[in-house]
Amino acid sequence: MIKQIMLVGLGGGAGSILRFLASYFTAKSGNYPFNAATFAVNITGCLLIGILTGLALKHNWLDENMRLLLITGFCGGFTTFSTFSLENMQMFQSGHYVQLVIYILTSIILGFAAVWTGLLLTK
User: Fold this and answer.
1) pTM, whole model, 2 decimals?
2) Phi, psi at 35, each rounded to 5°
């Protein structure tokens, strides 16, 4: 069990650091109507988890330890539902209702499409 916890922690740490860097550099590059970094990492993470899951299913490419490291750890640390939810609440409280609806719908639809695309790329 300790090994699995360490793998998830290592992957999650790496994913969280990469998410932080994406947020940092995105914030420096411009002013967006919603947090472009959270949107980008969540969609990219969806694509990556689709690819990794597809490869794991098709080729038995990932053993349990690699799934814990890459899918549970890295993708879990890289993507963030809590930040997405906080940003939605902030848009709601500031009265940006159109941006809120667009952000929620595009995140869910494109996230689903990204996972689906990732799975298709591995077939």
Assistant:
1) 0.84
2) -70, 100
Are the C-beta atoms of 79 and 21 separated by less than 8 Å?
no
The one-letter amino acid at 57: L
- The H-assigned helical ranges of 30-80 are 36-59, 64-67, 76-78
* H or E stretch at 6: helix 2-29
Integer CA distances (angstroms), 9 to 4, 15, 90, in order: 9, 10, 29
Q: What is the pLDDT of residues 30-59, one digit of tens each?
A: 777 667 888 889 999 999 999 999 988 888
Cβ-based neighbour number of residue 122 at 10 Å = 16
> Is there a contact between 18 and 75 (Cβ–Cβ < 8 Å)?
no
